[in-house]
């Protein structure tokens, strides 16, 4: 019998002792123990030991610690040190070689037996609950509502703060000291106690559906810092259906004095839910005072939140639609840092040498090359294999340079490549924590490729036959294959959920479903100078009868203002078939009607509120998503903040024929209830395969990939 089985069997035998030791805290502890045991039962053989260690950590931090220490002595034949800090992960000696299949089965059976015993609630009477303490032990069970009493929602927050090794709060009016006794980073979900701003909250109406009958839900928590060393930075946080979660504590090592920052990310099945930044000021010794310029000495704020931006109906399916890769971008000392998560756990951190200024150069070069590709096909749709070779070859060269600038030195360690083992067709989630919202991730080319040379660069001859993972020339740097581009291999969703400093908490919902009527109301805001305007609108209407699709043409400043300033927008979709650009000051604009320019300040003056209907917005206009790091205005961010369900935009100037053709292909899928991410991916790929035209790479999605119509407008194919 392995040590792991002995410990679980001992917990089963000591169940009554645990109930007595925990008293009023037993019901909440039981829920958390139940969830931990379920994780053990479902874990892979290689993960069982770490899951048992997490369970033991939970027990050792509770009032039942003396009982558990005795069980460890008996099972392990050696007592764990009595002076272990709260950051200790597991009992010594449990990080032994991986269990055999038979040993793993024994552990699962022991966990199942303990689960069955926990389900027998007749063995004890629940004690009288007491008030919870978010920083001490486990929460008590809340008092039941009196008959007829109104239900109330108690907001819960992602909390981050500093604790001493004894678990006491570090006063926020004192600096941290490098030569002090040491510190812990505390993380939990519950009543607010973080320094700085509390919100936005994790609303019960939003995270409630995640529980789906479960007593508790497990989130992934990852803490990171470029300056402070964090012991075991990736942990799992058990959040009960009600009340305070467990308190995670992570040991910190301060390496220098001065102002420093920690970032804490909360993820659910790979989906980034919320990020919080904690800033602290460090001095050398406890006796040293901080300068006046160092205040506040401890501060924190939410930098990204999806929780206030997503509907309750949308959160529950996240477990069925996990994100295999999540990219979190941040700025560290003026440089760009990219943190990659694989299945909710950190895969790698890339600190490039790029600053906002230097990032602008490769970004601009990439968009210039994309614009040259646009012009190469200006006379129509599609072209020859020779044209495709030249254009894909030059785009691949630029896309690979941009890739290497973002993720330096990958040629020295290819195992760190962010999408190395990511299956084709996956969704890559991008959560920008910097003001730069729009990056043409679709143009990243992540295979080794030489710079384009006319006559030497070859096009993969079999790309139409083989799949994204089956290219026979994947390792040939002289051959360019379309599937080397992220835009032809993955769906990339850029979530406009960044929270700016001193900004009010987001109140809009980033919906995953568009509550469209039948007929679906599509408002087309157009520039009347386009030659293809009339045929394009006819082709749109021809996608479905008027009883299914109601297309309204908006072609004047006054009509547009009336459309948007009348409260909730009277449309399910807003489709801008217009000119776009920026003025001399860098402000983006849309040119509609006979030439009226619409700026952000016009839109702000109309007090637009899209939250009631939450339309999906498409900017089929030049440079509608082509923002640089120094851009201070964004049409995408403007409409997202006011309640749009999502936005599609373009990374460069687009040709009129291409704009019409690509959007027709998108609408054929989207109106048939294909999710937006997949519909855009299919439109881009079909244009390439059928017409040898790569210009669909210019379109980017700023929404959740799953955003979809409630009711199909076109018959869904069997």
> What are the segments in which pLDDT stays under 50 over at least 5 consecutive residues?
78-97, 121-152
Question: How far is the first residue's CA from the last residue's CA?
Answer: 54 Å
Gyration radius (Cα, Å) is 28 Å
Largest sheet: 6 strands, mixed
Sheet-strand content, in percent, reads 15-25%
Mean pLDDT: 81
Gross morphology: globular
Number of helical segments with 4 or more residues: 16
Proportion in helices = 25-40%
The count of β-strands is 28
Secondary structural class: alpha/beta
Task: Describe the overall structure.
- This protein has 718 residues and is an alpha/beta fold.
- β23 and β24 form a beta hairpin.
- The protein is globular and about 80 Å long.
- It starts with a helix and ends in a 9-residue tail after the last strand.
Search tags:
718 residues; 16 helices; globular
Brief description of this entry?
Helix content is 27%, strand content 23%. Strand 19 (520-526), helix 11 and strand 20 form a beta-alpha-beta unit.
SSE blueprint:
Blueprint: H1 3-13, H2 15-22, H3 26-42, H4 48-60, H5 65-76, H6 101-119, E1 157-164, E2 176-177, E3 183-190, H7 204-211, E4 216-224, E5 228-230, E6 234-240, E7 248-254, E8 258-268, E9 271-283, E10 298-305, H8 312-315, E11 325-332, E12 335-342, E13 345-355, H9 356-376, H10 385-406, E14 427-432, E15 458-459, E16 479-480, E17 491-494, E18 513-514, E19 520-526, H11 533-541, E20 549-554, H12 557-564, E21 573-577, E22 579-582, E23 588-592, E24 596-599, H13 600-605, E25 616-620, H14 635-641, E26 646-650, H15 656-670, H16 676-691, E27 699-702, E28 708-709
Parallel strand pairs: 2-9, 11-14, 14-17, 15-16, 18-28, 19-20, 19-21, 21-25, 25-26
Antiparallel strand pairs: 1-3, 3-7, 4-6, 4-8, 5-7, 8-9, 9-10, 11-12, 12-13, 22-23, 23-24, 26-27
Helix pairs in contact: 1-5, 1-6, 3-4, 3-6, 9-10, 15-16
